[in-house]
Amino acid sequence: MAEAVIAVTGAGGGIGGRVARRLADAGATTRLVSRRPEALPDLAGATAVRGTDYTDAAGVGAAVAGAGVLFLVSARESANRVREHATAIDAAIEAGVGRIVYLSFLGAAADCTFTFGRDHWHTEQYLRATGVPFVALRDSTYASGLPAMTGTDGVLRGPAGDGRVSAVTPDDIAAVATAVLLDPSHDGQVLDVTGPEAITLAEAAATLTEFTGRPVTYHAETETEAYESRSVYGAPDHEVAGWVTSYLAIATGELSVVADTVPRLTGHPAQSFPDFLRANPDSYAHLLPGA
Hints:
Layout: E1 6-8, H1 14-25, E2 30-34, E3 46-50, H2 57-64, E4 69-72, H3 81-94, E5 99-105, H4 115-130, E6 134-139, H5 145-148, E7 155-158, E8 164-165, H6 170-182, E9 190-193, E10 199-200, H7 201-212, E11 217-220, H8 223-230, H9 237-252, H10 261-266, H11 273-279
Helix pairs in contact: 1-6, 2-3, 3-4, 7-11, 8-9
């Protein structure tokens, strides 16, 4: 019996693209879904497909038609994201998808501090109610996000207090996702995907100092300060709340969980934050002296 075709949404992005390449290396047949299929890599066994908003049920169904397995990367944050996810899930199932691997978030719960984490929890519940085999991958904050959140002034700002976060690298997330997509024995599981340790943002700043050769510091904002400092971007209220509460979730300890999922499913240790910086110097290029 032929192996099921695997559809990968967001295949032009950081996680989806990594998953697509790993699946190709494993010899899988894939449908790579992106709004810009011309930007997708030319991979063995892959078909590039023009994607659409998750609000477009017919478009989603057409994009994943012929696939038996779906890697569902969450939609961009919006006030209606759960409904968008439900529409995409229903459309995929109607098109014949029989397994779904969903990229969720660590600590997802109906009342978790991180407001976007609540969206992930409701999506997980919707998936469970469909009866279709699924796996939820609850990844922690991306290790790549820590230097990205640090300003060119060398200050990492946020109301995270002295809480800890088990930051995980995009490569490790993709490795776990690939393992799960290729092995249905994980169906029905909710897996925490984390780095090997939980660090404070002050420790992250100290590590960035070592790598950049310039002082990088952490400023523990108050919640009020955090909302004020982010108001200048003119983003919708729900988006600003998501930014701020992502730090508050660190402060409460909700993102300090350290799981063994990466080594257990991939056979290699999870990358630490220094490991990530060592392998990805471009991630902190904006912090280098003279940048």
